[in-house]
């Protein structure tokens, strides 16, 4: 179980994340929603320890994550893989090499760049690409792929870390509807099939309700909602998004993944 206890982060005296306490069960798919600037990205980066907390604790099973340093911290970052909105691929490298960079923690950067990957690791990388439906792109330069394909390459790279937790920071924010569906379907399959905990920041409430087991709403860095998708009523939405939110489309019946078939035809 992942446990956050009174977790906080300040920048220039302002609380970006303010005393967040959460428990995330192993194998859960958790959606984090809120306005831009609510603290969603900072929260995920603290869990991965890309950003150090100002206060509070992060625990995962018997590990005190917030106290890890050196090699143990690197091991945690491998076990807690991060997927970014900007993909963070090396555009001039081919796709399969980008995926194998998920093994950096085992080889080190210089060893990886020197071609230290084994044939077995290459096979695993190709299997990950095949699982995500893009094996045919393996030898293409990453920069030649569409945004949706690049995000699936980033997911494949994260899988090569053999993570226990997968963090996705606005993974579909820059994608078209069809690509968004493919990426969210992939994250859901990984969550269900591999029993990997997935925590995903999302702007689209309908997608959060369709794919996530539980939703946490942040406002001004604090948790203001923590519950099932069906419990997101007008009062909860107003608390998360403020009085000026237009709730009409947000309060429609939540769509299920099969309702996104119109996207695939777009």
UniProtKB/TrEMBL annotation:
PROSITE patterns: ABC_TRANSPORTER_1 (PS00211), ABC_TRANSPORTER_2 (PS50893)
Keyword tags: ATP-binding, Cell membrane, Membrane, Nucleotide-binding, Translocase, Transport
GO molecular function terms attached to this record: ABC-type phosphonate transporter activity; ATP binding; ATP hydrolysis activity
GO cellular component: membrane
Superkingdom of source: Bacteria
UniProt domain ABC transporter: residue ranges: 2-245
A Pfam family it matches: ABC_tran
Protein name (database record): Phosphonate transport system ATP-binding protein
Taxonomic source organism: Arboricoccus pini
Classification lineage: Bacteria, Pseudomonadati, Pseudomonadota, Alphaproteobacteria, Geminicoccales
């Amino acid at each position: 179980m992942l446990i956050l206890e009174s977790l906080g982060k300040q920048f220039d005296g302002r609380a970006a994340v303010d005393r967040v306490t959460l428990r995330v069960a192993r194998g859960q798919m958790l959606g984090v929603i809120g306005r831009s600037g609510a603290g969603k990205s900072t929260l995920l980066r603290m869990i991965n320890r890309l950003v150090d907390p100002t206060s509070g604790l992060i625990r995962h099973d018997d590990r005190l994550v917030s106290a890890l340093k050196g090699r143990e911290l690197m091991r945690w970052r491998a076990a807690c893989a991060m997927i970014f909105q900007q993909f963070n691929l090396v555009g001039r490298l081919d796709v399969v090499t980008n995926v194998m960079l998920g093994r950096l923690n085992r080889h080190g950067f210089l060893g990886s760049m020197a071609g230290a990957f084994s044939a077995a690791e290459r096979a695993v990388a190709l299997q990950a690409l095949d699982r995500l439906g893009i094996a045919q792109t393996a030898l293409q330069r990453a920069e030649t792929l569409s945004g949706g394909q690049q995000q699936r390459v980033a997911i494949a790279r994260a899988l090569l870390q053999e993570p226990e937790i997968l963090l996705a920071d606005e993974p579909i924010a820059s994608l078209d509807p069809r690509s968004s569906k493919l990426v969210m379907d992939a994250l859901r399959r990984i969550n269900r099939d591999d029993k990997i905990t997935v925590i995903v920041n999302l702007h689209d409430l309908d997608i959060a309700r369709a794919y996530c087991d539980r939703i946490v709403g942040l406002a001004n860095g604090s948790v203001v909602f923590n519950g099932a998708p069906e419990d997101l009523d007008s009062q909860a939405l107003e608390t998360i998004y403020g009085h000026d939110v237009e709730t009409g489309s947000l309060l429609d019946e939540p769509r299920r993944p099969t309702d996104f078939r119109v996207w695939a035809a777009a």
